[in-house]
Amino acid sequence: MKIKEVYVRWIGIPILAIVINGLVKHDQPDSWILQVLISMVFTGIFWNGAYLIFQIHRKRFPEITQTPRRIFSTIITLAVFLLVFASGIRMVFGYVTISDIIADWTLIFDKAEINFIAAYMIGSVYESVYFFEKWKNTIEQNEALKNQQVRTQFEVLQNQMSPHFLFNSLNTLTTLIAENQNTAISFTERLSEVYRYILQNKEKELVTLEQELEFAKNYLYLLQIRYPENLHVTFDIDDQFHHSHIAPLTIQILVENCIKHNIISKTNPLNIEIYVQNGKSIVVKNNLQVKKVIEKSTKTGLVNIKKRYKYLCDQSIDVITTSQNFMVAVPLINVVESQNELIQAEA
Questions:
Q1: What is the C-alpha separation between 84 and 266, in angstroms, rounded?
Q2: 112-160 and 181-201 helices cross at what angle (nearest 10)?
């Protein structure tokens, strides 16, 4: 069970005040109780002020990769804070005056070493706890993403390798062999590319949009052979977005949902549009003509994508349903290589 920081602080302040009071040689003949109370005032102000400084710098430099910058900036700010407020408190208690400091500026550093040692010892504890919490959270997020990737691999492979999918593909291939051998060869090559992509990228967190689109087109080719007049797909994606990144199999899952949940017939053709919106998201949109009876589904496709993107870039997946259309907008991700690490940012 975690101990609340506020309890540690308010218990630690009087304890540290007593310890410091025992270490510091006092110039004024005050009683021991008064000396401890004054020491508690100093310690309370310094500890709470230092805590506020730590919190500000954590918000400013929150990532593990920013740890050196956060520590350096915290040390400088903390040193200035200790010197300024130590002199101010001593003037409040009448130990020194502004005239004294002007006459001898070295009074600013009187007993500063004790304040610095105490502050930096406490600060080391705070920084260590913060660092290991961030480190632990990163590991947990990576494990959660890895588990989600495993579930994605299983679900996609289960769908693609299912007897239903294979039966339809082989049945289509058999018909093509009898009717058009050239198309049959092309169909076989595209089917091979679909499985190759899945096997090559099933363990990756991200792929380029160009790779994902090539895979999606191969997948759609197989579907359009089955629905030559009833399935219409258009792509409207400028080449400038091809180097953006996306979670693998995302478009395939969204297209599969379109096929699975909507009627496809000559009287009700299914129209799917895949395009980039505002340079930030890849959108898969279809006209809405929901089946009354939907084939067996795990109903985890969108949930799967949402969870993966939560870990990848903490961006939301937008799902919009109107009376005529169903749309899913997935954020594009820019990946920048820096110091052998991949830093992900919203496009």
A1: 81
A2: 150
Give the C-alpha distances (Å, rounded to integers) separating 122 from 12, 118, 147. 10, 6, 38
Task: Using the structure block, give the residue that is written with the tokens 């020194």.
Answer: 96
| Inter-residue contact 220 to 255 (CB < 8 Å) | yes
Return the ∠ at Cα 268 (arms to 190 and 322), rounded to 5°.
100
DSSP letter string, 252-308: HHHHHHHHHHB--SSSS-EEEEEEEETTTEEEEEEE--B-SSPPP--S-HHHHHHHH
67 vs 184: CA distance, rounded Å? 58
**pLDDT, tens only, 204-259:** 778 999 999 999 998 888 888 888 889 999 999 999 999 999 988 889 889 888 98
Q: Are the CB atoms for 296 and 270 separated by under 8 Å?
A: no
C-alpha to C-alpha distance for 261 and 253, rounded to whole angstroms: 12
Write down the pTM of the prediction: 0.52
CA distance 204 to 249: 10
Q: How far apart are CA 302 and CA 320, in angstroms?
A: 12
- Structural contact between residues 193 and 218, judged by C-beta atoms closer than 8 angstroms: yes
Place of tokens 């990144």: 245
- List of residues 6+ apart from 147 with CB closer than 8 A: none
The pairing of strands 270-277 and 231-236 is parallel
Helix (H, G, I), strand (E, B) or coil at 316: coil
146-182: per-residue pLDDT in tens? 666 666 654 554 454 445 556 667 777 787 787 778 8
Which domains are assigned to the chain? 5-138 (no CATH), 161-346 (3.30.565.10)
3-state helix, strand, coil in the chain (%, to 5): 65, 15, 20
Element housing 234 (H / E): strand 231-236
- pLDDT tens-digit map of 311-329: 777 678 899 999 999 999 9
